[in-house]
UniProtKB/TrEMBL annotation:
Primary location: membrane
UniProt membrane topology term: Multi-pass membrane protein
Self-association state and partner proteins as the record states: NDH-1 is composed of 14 different subunits. Subunits NuoA, H, J, K, L, M, N constitute the membrane sector of the complex.
Stretches that traverse the bilayer: 6-30, 37-57, 77-97, 109-128, 165-187, 207-230, 275-294, 301-322, 328-349, 370-388, 408-427, 448-468
Keyword ATP-binding: no
Function: NDH-1 shuttles electrons from NADH, via FMN and iron-sulfur (Fe-S) centers, to quinones in the respiratory chain. The immediate electron acceptor for the enzyme in this species is believed to be ubiquinone. Couples the redox reaction to proton translocation (for every two electrons transferred, four hydrogen ions are translocated across the cytoplasmic membrane), and thus conserves the redox energy in a proton gradient.
Assigned keywords, A-Z: Cell membrane, Membrane, NAD, Oxidoreductase, Quinone, Translocase, Transmembrane, Transmembrane helix, Transport, Ubiquinone
Gene that encodes the chain: nuoN
UniProt-listed Pfam families: Proton_antipo_M (PF00361)
Name recorded for this polypeptide: NADH-quinone oxidoreductase subunit N
Length: 487
């Protein structure tokens, strides 16, 4: 093996790791007073990592030359696509966080460091070509995430969210590890390529159980039904910038990892896992839609919305085709933008004392008191609902189109019908803001960075986003071609 080639391929992970270790020393000596400097350097590091992975995506990198460390790591175009979304989401989180934590006098130097180390783990997840790499990356992300959820120590809700996330996450990791052990036992290898070769002529019952347990563990990470129970409590209890992070980067990493495992390691036996994904997709769509109807806290509503949207994304995976995988990447990209816009708007909902407003009834009449903020939040809600001409409609369209092309008409019809149900709770928020008598609660001013991020994200999910459909489709096709080339 050429070590220099392997080290070159992991340059983004090396950059973030070295920066994280150096900044860890800065945090140890400078304390929380250095938190802003550490955040700025961390954002610059993540942007540099995005620049390092971009050439692989633009060049459509695939094949043996993208393999590192005896085939355990793959730095292809698919991994690069996911990493750009992951690092970008992490950078936005770090930009949004300071003003929130300074409100509680709780901005800690460890926060950007945890985001950096979680990003390293997520990068390993989407580049995993071996069960060992998969688990190491997953645990790096998870351990950082548990601390992030509970980082606001002065808030009991944050501590509760961190504890719930840790306990349930540990259970999910155990289930995943058991599934990996079964897979290794019956396939005789931890390599995705080796597993694919081993099951190509038939899948034993033991290997099938391995798939089931692995999917159960991975479904927890993307908050898919029936492993979604942690999501509303953690989204509500965790600090809002952390919730923004959970709703974006780990979602991309989890979905990318599931695509790697199913389409790479078990691509030859798609019939064995398609029924599982079909159930998880439809159950997530229905449970997410019905669960959100009775919510009065906007962060809990966004939690159920994430469950609902994960279901729609998995419709693309259920097709087991390149068109479906490409549709997934397009949908994930749009969903990340919608989530960033939604949670940035939530961070801007403050009363005259600077306290954050999360109760939906308190948003009554927001269109008359803060018309710009109400318009942005309405844009997010309509786009999440998939109502044309907003860009969120395109995400649903491409995955349903892939389902129709794969002769899964029933799946497409059920998904479309369920999306109509889901539109109810999004429209409820718009109705409260535009048609109820003003509560006149939201009066606080927002940081300029929040406004800038909200404007950019809303522009992307507005009808202007359709100008990018051709480029986005070609880029997603390039990424998925690299994924299927590994089969």
């Amino acid at each position: 093996m050429d070590w220099s080639q392997s080290l070159r391929l992991i340059a983004p992970e090396e950059t973030i790791t070295v920066a994280g270790l150096v900044l860890l020393l800065v945090a140890a000596w400078g304390g929380d007073k250095a938190s802003r400097l550490i955040s700025i350097v961390s954002v610059a590091t993540l942007v540099a990592a995005m620049a390092l992975v971009a050439p692989a995506l633009c060049g459509g990198a695939m094949g043996p030359e993208t393999s590192a460390f005896f085939g355990q790591f793959r730095a292809d175009a698919f991994a690069s696509y996911a990493k750009i979304l992951i690092y970008g989401s992490a950078a936005v989180t770090l930009v949004l966080a300071p003003s929130y934590f300074e409100r509680y006098d709780s901005m800690r130097a460890e926060f950007p460091l945890l985001v950096l180390f979680a990003s390293v783990g997520m990068g390993m997840m989407v580049s995993a070509a071996d069960l060992l790499t998969l688990y190491i990356g997953l645990e790096m992300m998870s351990l950082s995430s548990y601390v992030l959820a509970a980082i606001l120590r002065s808030d009991g809700r944050s501590a509760e969210a961190g504890l719930k996330y840790f306990v349930l996450g540990a259970l999910a990791s155990g289930i995943l590890l058991f599934g990996m052990s079964l897979t290794y036992g019956f396939a005789g290898t931890t390599s995705f390529a080796g597993i694919n070769s081993s099951v190509s002529e038939g899948l034993s019952n033991g290997a099938l159980f391995g798939i089931v347990f692995m999917l159960a563990g991975l479904a927890f990470k993307i908050s898919a039904v029936p492993f979604h129970m942690w999501t509303p409590d953690v989204y509500e209890g965790a600090p809002t910038p952390v919730t923004t992070f959970f709703a974006t980067a780990p979602k991309v990493a989890g979905l990318g990892l599931i695509m790697r495992v199913l389409l790479d390691a078990f691509g030859e036996q798609a019939a064995a896992w398609q029924q599982i994904i079909l159930f998880v997709a439809l159950a997530s769509i229905v449970v997410g839609a019905l669960g959100a109807i009775g919510q009065s806290n906007i962060k809990r509503l966004m939690a159920y919305s994430s469950i609902n949207n994960v279901g729609f994304i998995l419709v693309g995976l259920a097709t087991a085709t390149q068109a479906g995988a490409s549709g997934m990447l397009i949908y994930v990209t749009i969903y990340v933008a919608m989530s960033i816009a939604g949670f940035t708007a939530i961070l801007m909902l403050k009363d005259e004392n600077g306290n954050y407003v999360e109760d939906i009834p308190k948003l009554a009449g927001l269109s008359r008191t803060r018309p710009g903020l109400a318009l942005a939040l309405a844009t997010v809600m309509f786009s999440l609902a998939g109502i044309p001409p907003l860009f969120g409609f395109w995400g649903k369209f491409v995955v349903f189109q892939a389902a129709v092309q794969a002769d899964m008409l029933a799946l497409a019809f059920i998904g479309i019908a369920a999306s109509v149900i889901g539109a109810f709770y999004y429209l409820k928020v718009v109705k409260v803001m535009y048609f109820d008598e003003p509560a006149d609660v939201v009066k606080g001013e927002s940081d300029i960075w929040h406004k800038l991020i909200l404007v950019v994200a809303c522009a992307f999910i507005s009808p202007l986003g359709y100008l990018l459909t051709s480029w986005l489709g070609e880029t997603a096709n390039t990424a998925t071609t690299a994924l299927f080339a590994a089969l």
